[in-house]
What we know:
By secondary structure, the protein is mainly β. It is 0% helix and 48% strand. It contains no helices and eleven strands. The strands form two sheets. Strands 2, 4, 5, 6, 9, 10 and 11 form a seven-stranded mixed β-sheet that branches. Strand 7 and strand 8 form a beta hairpin. It is globular. The chain starts with a strand and ends with a strand.
Amino acid sequence: QVQLVESGGGLVQAGGSLRLSCSASGLTFSSPAMGWFRQAPGKEREFVAAISRNGGSTDYTHSVKGRFTISRDNAKNTVYLQMNSLKPEDTAVYHCAARRFIVSGSNYYIREVEYDYWGQGTQVTVSS
Length: 128
């Protein structure tokens, strides 16, 4: 059974940084395409960042471009989200997601429905 476990969340002041990790276990297939989503209180879950299986292609939602960086280490079955210049509006529960079936190693996915597995999430709180 595939399990995704996020870590690295916490409380940080505006302008600070955090690095989230998502560790995958139970994989019986090649490294999946991965993504990060977030859900703020009272809001729907939204796409944050995505990375292809080979790590060569990435995408970000507009509000985090230039501040967040997604990366992966396939040897460790781990994906990361480096978050810099954090703002209070980044406060949310951050979830990682994995997609098993992919057409090409360079494809990434930005819609929730395209993902097969989800982690429980890690809370990120940015104070002003």
